[in-house]
Amino acid sequence: MDSVRTLIIGAGVSGLATAAALSERKDDDYVVLEADREIGGWCKTVKKDGFVWDYSGHFFHFKHPEIERWLRERMPGQRIRVVEKKSFIWFGGRWIDFPFQKNIHQLPRADFIDCLHDLYFARSSDVKRDAPAPEDNFKEMLHARFGKGICDRFLVPYNEKLYACDLATLDKDAMGRFFPYADLTDVVRNMKAPDNASYNATFTYPEGGAIEYVRALASAVRKGGVSLQEGLVSVDLARKVATTTRRELRFERLVSSAPFHRFADLCRLEHDPSTWAYNKVLVFNLGFDRKGKPGVHWAYFPSRETSFYRVGWYDNIFETDRMSLYVEIGFPRDAEIDGPAMRSRVLADLEREGIVAGHRLVAEHSVVMDPAYVHITRRSMAEHARLTARLREANVHSIGRYGGWTYCSIEDNMLEARALVVGWNS
């Protein structure tokens, strides 16, 4: 039986960041297992007929300069664009600056009055005589903080399209720091002095696509450290033995970035499968023969009549002369997706919304991300904490967005992996 000190499951950002951190500390007794034929996870990049697309829109917002510097040092010759984000909401036939709740003054007059009225009575302590509205779930949180007008027009329909679920099933902090909160004072101030800055007000993007950041991570992994097309079959926690599609591997410690519900099954941990709700996302990457709308990087579409919830313009990032889009549609985890039918509907919706106007489609790609967004609930948080405590007893660690069953950034994944390795060496 083969033996390895550290077994890493998944050659996406979290897995490769773990391996890179181990190599930096001269601990090269590891192997990264990847079931796919190439590295990257959901950060793969597709290049076709002169277009560059990621599996989905992955844009990088570095809060830690040392992380970005470390990556750039390993990307010689790769031009990296620094872009000031321009994002909008398509509502009622007009573009509204994002975030919606800070820009309700841009709405038609009747919509603006409704939204401002409901926000005022939701947030103003001077006029609120009743008990505070409950915030026991994500939907209640939205109504309590923003009022019915803003929720009905954007926050609820958009997020229901994104998560493909009833928002009342999600924890109130399901999006954590990534949710663009705004109070009444912010909203009123923004009417005269616009300030729509958010955690991702600027982003960086390599001209070769998101895979270039993944390759930078992989460059720090020891030669032969990644085993492609080798999937995990089971883990015997008591014996510390992993069975793969090729062999058995004895390990001292194991790090997994696999979706937690699937990893728990492979470890034969008793758990209720219904705990782990999530959605999947169908992504169409579309290349057209000429330029489309300038000056926008991505836009949100809350209307339930429109199939997609978000569209992004790669051509406005790369400053190219042909429109290059990614289009995202959310589905429940068990939905049967009819790809050709959805393609036809998406193209029709793009035409109806004015994004496509007589353009000719010249290249395309599609992928179903499954899972895409995990549904963070009180139940999932409690069960994840219980099961990961059990795993840690065997020196097994589940990290990343899917391993941690959380909402986080790609930079967060790298920081988590590094912190884990530092903890082993401290």
Task: Give descriptors for this structure.
Rossmann fold, Alpha-Beta Plaits, protoporphyrinogen ix oxidase, domain 3, globular, single chain, 3 domains, 7-stranded mixed β-sheet, 12 helices, alpha/beta, 426 residues
Kindly report the CATH topology of the largest domain: Rossmann fold
Number of helices: 12
- The total of beta strands comes to 18
Kindly report how far apart the N and C termini lie: 30 Å
In round numbers, the mean pLDDT is 94
Question: Helix proportion of residues, in percent?
Answer: 25-40%
| Model regions low in confidence, pLDDT < 50 over at least 5 residues | none
Classified in CATH, the superfamily of the largest domain is NAD(P)-binding Rossmann-like Domain
The CATH top-level class label of the largest domain: Alpha Beta
Beta fraction of the residues? Answer: 15-25%
What's the overall geometry?
Answer: globular
Largest sheet: 7 strands, mixed
Helix/strand/pairing category: alpha/beta
Quick rundown:
This protein has 426 residues and is of the alpha/beta class.
Q: How would you characterize the overall build of this protein?
A:
- Strands 1, 2, 9, 10, 11, 12 and 18 form a seven-stranded mixed sheet that branches.
- It is globular, with a radius of gyration of 23 Å.
- Helix 1 packs parallel to helix 12 and helix 3 crosses helix 4.
- The longest helix has 26 residues.
- It folds into three domains: 202 residues, Rossmann fold; 95 residues, Orthogonal Bundle (protoporphyrinogen ix oxidase, domain 3), CATH 1.10.3110; 91 residues, Alpha-Beta Plaits, CATH 3.30.70.
- The protein contains twelve helices and 18 strands.
- With 426 residues, it is of the alpha/beta class.
- A hairpin with a 2-residue loop joins strand 3 and strand 4.
